[in-house]
Amino acid sequence: MTVTHVLGFPRIGANRELKQALEAYWSGREDAAALEAVGRSLRRRHWRLQLEAGLDYLTVGDFSFYDHVLDMSLALDVVPRRCRREGSDAFATCFTMARGRAPGVEPALACEMTKWFDTNYHYIVPEFSPEQRFRLVAPRIFAEMEEARALGHPLKAVLVGPLTYLWLGRDEAPGMDRLRLLDALLPAYGELLQGLAARGADWIQLDEPILALDLPPAWRQAFESAYHQLQTRAAKLLLATYFGGLEDNLSLACQLPVDGLHVDLVRAPEQLPALLDRLPPYKTLSLGIIDGRNVWRADLDALLATLVPLKARLGSRLWLAPSCSLLHVPVDLTLEDGLDPELRSWLAFAVQKLDELHVLKRALDEDPAAVAPELAMARKAVITRRASQRCCDPAVRERLRQVDAAMECRASPHARRRIHQQRRLHLPPLPTTTIGSFPQTAEIRAARRAWRSGGMTTAAYEARMRGEIEAIVRRQEAIGLDVLVHGEPERSDMVEYFAEQLRGFATTRHGWVQSYGSRCVKPPILYGDVSRPGAMTVEWFKYAQSLTDKPVKGMLTGPVTLLNWSFVRDDQPREETCLQLALALRDEVTDLEAAGAAIIQIDEAALREGLPLRRSQWDTYLSWAVRAFRIAASAVRDETQIHTHMCYSQFNDIIAAIAAMDADVVTIESARSHMALLDVFRDFAYPNGIGPGVYDIHSPNVPTVEEITRLLTQALACIPAERLWVNPDCGLKTRGWAEVEAALRNMVQAARALRGLPGRQKG
Ligand code: GLN
Ligand code: ZN
């Protein structure tokens, strides 16, 4: 029999039940018991879905109230001292680490949050001290095993593997090497494995996605010793790798003393022959053949053509699964009754991917005839999609062919542009601004819901949004910011906002994917050639600018970010799709300039997360990504200032590409990483303007004037005052007005005080 399983299932709930429960608990509306109950019911529902789809194992441990890496830290007692809370309940420490506060306990500086490999999911970074100890403390997964066991089905537990766990953490002392902690870590892992086996785990899946990275030799060696030490008879071990091919780690992965290996055949199908060659004959091979990162239906015929001979060869050692956890796709397509039926027939969300596995299993174990109707449906989707006219626009393709090098360049170098821009803008030194969005209040969301459901006319909705914009402009003036924004009230999600107006995109109603904690996004589906039927942001900008003498930034989302935060067509190279997006945005930039925008911000929040996991592929990606940005940004005159914003803090590797984007100002996320990244900008001698975030918007805490002053002082040690901007580290959409207003006042006060210092007067 062919075994089917998933590496993980989305935890947020088809209707974002977990989000609602978390937010109710954080606000004090519900207690911990209510939150626990929602967790239990979501787990039960997700296991039921796996049972119904005939999966051979239920996966336990993929659920989390915030983040699964944080759960490992809690289970191993890797808790920074400042976050330890003998709180009112079991969540106190968890949420203090995750977001700096939990109901009923003292706030603290939250732990750093960063992106999980090349996804838009964020994990909480473990903090390791040189004397770090590891001690198993009541892991949540133990209780979850007991719950799952009640369902009477074979169980597979999942954990982040020990090497990946260490790799993802941060050394808290200079010069320390956290790989040295491995010896201390392994006994705790051993105990955890025993505990899971004792609670009924037949298999334990150890996720080691770092095997798809370029690993230093010491880490590769550590794999050998660690997995020798972890060998156990109590349960079988499945080593899971994903997000890329094993490449130079393939032999290592094949040889580790575990019972099975999972590989990602969607991202790296070419590794199959080498795997078949190297895998010892006793080992299970779990093939990730259903795309866990995208929403297209699988080509089941093509898969069966590969799988039938494999089945003959491997027999019951052949397992089938999605390529990675289904955390990265929406839950259930059946909720999408508003999608165009043909487009919908091309898609599969998490629940549908379980069904695809089931069809493959039956075709292999019984007979393809047993699933003939299901196979016919899959075949039809492949054929209609390939032939569809809706995906192809000859005019777009022709325009792409006309792109030349001149379109990628501003008229003058930055040093010259700066002079023109300063003459136009007259900004003080250390100018203050924000990243674009202001709180999306309940009233704004209610208005949008009413408008979308037909309960409010477009005219009334637009009038409401103008009212919001006016209020936001007035508030910014009162706070004393130098460069204003319109606040983006009309955008519930920026990517979705543009996707709704561009041709070639579809948006969903319930296609939520977890981004961090309770925060979810609904990535649009980019299925066809992209074009811009009309201006998308110009009227909002014009209205905002008409209200004030201060400059208002035009606000756009960049081509690379639109690409990286969408589910993208897989029938042409991403590069080509990205250039189509760039051309559409270029027209919008031109229109904004013509409407009087002196500053246009093109957010590239997601540029870094699209960076391939292997260095050998970086240059190719960065060169087309930078080119796309430049094509979008370069049609403007010297005196128009282009900003970009980036939502991450690891620039070491890509600083040259950031510089090559040639934005006049780049604002970055850095409040939580203690401005450490500024060294990079100093060492590289980054030539343009830069605004390192001085207010951590991912936490509800209000930074004091002193804290902001300290960060700015650090920044001034690395960046000359005439090029330093003062801003929060991301948009303020998810925050409340009270915090935002207080924090921005502190920010403006800190900037003004520093301007007054001698030697900081040059503009
Ligand atoms: N302009 C956007 C905002 O302020 C940028 C968001 C982001 O970078 N994620 O919300
Ligand atoms: Zn951001």
Class inferred from helices and paired strands: alpha/beta
Number of strands: 22
Number of helical stretches of at least 4 residues: 27
Radius of gyration: 26 Å
Give the helix level as a range of percent. 40-55%
Q: What ranges have pLDDT less than 50 throughout 5 or more consecutive residues?
A: 759-763
Ligands bound here?
Answer: glutamine, zinc ion
Shape: globular
Strand content: 5-15%
- The strand line-up of the biggest sheet is 1-12-11-10-9-8-6-2
Distance between the termini: 73 Å
Q: What about the largest sheet?
A: 8 strands, parallel
Mean pLDDT: 96
Task: Characterise the protein shown here.
This protein is of the alpha/beta class and 763 residues long. Helix content is 42%, strand content 12%. The protein has 27 helices and 22 strands. The strands form six sheets. Strands 1-12-11-10-9-8-6-2 form an eight-stranded parallel β-sheet. It has a five-stranded parallel β-sheet with strand order 17-19-20-21-22. A hairpin with a 6-residue loop joins strand 3 (113-115) and strand 4. It is globular and about 75 Å long. The termini are far apart. It binds glutamine (GLN) and zinc ion. Zinc ion binds next to loops.
Offer a few descriptive terms.
five-stranded parallel beta sheet, 27 helices, binds zinc ion, 763 residues, eight-stranded parallel beta sheet, alpha/beta, single chain, binds glutamine
Brief characterization of the structure:
By secondary structure, this protein is an alpha/beta fold. The chain is built from 27 helices and 22 strands.
